[in-house]
Write a structure and sequence with these properties.
The structure holds two protein chains of two kinds. In chain A, a hairpin with a 2-residue loop joins strand 6 and strand 7. Chain A has two domains: 28 residues; 94 residues, PH-domain like. Chain A is elongated, with a radius of gyration of 19 Å. Chain A contains three helices and seven strands; from the N terminus they run H-H-E-E-E-E-E-E-E-H. Helices cover 32% and strands 31% of the residues of chain A. By secondary structure, chain B is mostly helical. Helices cover 55% and strands 0% of the residues of chain B. In chain B, helix 3 packs across helix 4 and helix 3 packs across helix 7. The chains are: A alpha+beta, B mainly alpha. Chains A and B meet through helix 1 and strand 4 of A and helix 1 and helix 2 of B.
Amino acid sequence: MGSLPVLVAVAVAVLVLVWLAKRFGFSGDVVPPGAAELEQLLDGLPGGFDCRQSVRCQNPSTVVAVDSLGRVAVVASHGAHHVAQLLGRQSSVTQDGEVFTIWHHGRCFRFDAGAEAARWSAILSCATGGDT
Amino acid sequence: MTSFDPLPYAIPAFVLLIMLEIAWARGSERRRIYEARDTAVSLALGVGSLIAGAAAALVTVPLLVSAHALSPLAFGWAWWAWALCFVADDLAYYWLHRTGHRVRWFWAAHVNHHSSQHYNLSTALRQTWTGFFALSFIFRLPLAFAGFEPGMILTCAAFNLIYQFWIHTEAIRRMPRWFEAVMNTPSHHRVHHATNGRYLDRNYAGTFIIWDKLFGTFEPEVDEVPIRYGIVSQLGSFNLIKAAFHEWAAIARDVWHAPWRHKLSYMWREPGWSHDASRETSEMIRQRAVTARIEDTPASKD
């Protein structure tokens, strides 16, 4: 069997399968993470995650959490699932009044810290190694 | 060199079975099994690996032929040689796969197979583009040295890969007990793709699960523990290039920033190793999970 016809047939099959998956609506029905799922996701972070405080972002499927060591994690949707990732020096934060915008791996997460803005400013500044 | 590649003949069956699984997953409780973008990445990685594999064969096939020429033995094409070769190849695959999880250099080539947070038949096709660069082929050279025909080794390796397609599914809970005892199954392989601490780096088998039982890496699936799929530090991206190369880029970054005496360790130690203990290896995570389980038991709470 020649290589080229096989590759072309495979490429066509791939397109058909992806179209089928889209047609059937498998395009990430994002459900905000429940408490148990949130705990599991955070616990899976390197070193575990002793969550002390969390805040839900304007996009309700995204949560920002801080642990007892001052590490900050974002739990965000990824397709139909969620990922938990720690903020680091590659992340950046901007503050507009009580609203914080976190930039992490090309995605942005916004939340309103309300009366706790000063506290979150210090936490995020420490976690990202910069100024907010 | 005489050789038969069964892979092109299996592709229509792969496509048909993925279609059937997509149809099965339409039910509301199973909607999270598939994700169109994830499927696109998995299938594109599969197509890319076909091309990468064809290019790599230009070097690996002559190497196998040379190794076979040096062998004092020649088993030929007898039926028993086929059976022996398939079992020996599966053992070689076990060690290749185990090394692929325990040595970061090889993990960089294999990680893309695990980086999906979904577990379905399309995940099976999420194959490496960089296996040749990682020198994964060295694990099959001993078979040629041992006297097996190079064409026979490649055919057995292809059948091994085809066998592993159907075990990437949640549609099958358990096979009959005798089958679960000897063969790799969807249940055993779900454990392998899990990121739950208790399941990390377990069940490396290709076709026969007996290797894991023999070498102490077997872990059965526990129905009460919901499986989280993917990798410890989830990729969080549907970018194809990122999926194919992210761990290589991470190795390059770590080697660049590491003190001189630790540079090689970032390539040859286990994934998660760091010179300042700032990260966790799978053993550390497993230990943490085991400790947490012990603390969760009623007796320890008294």
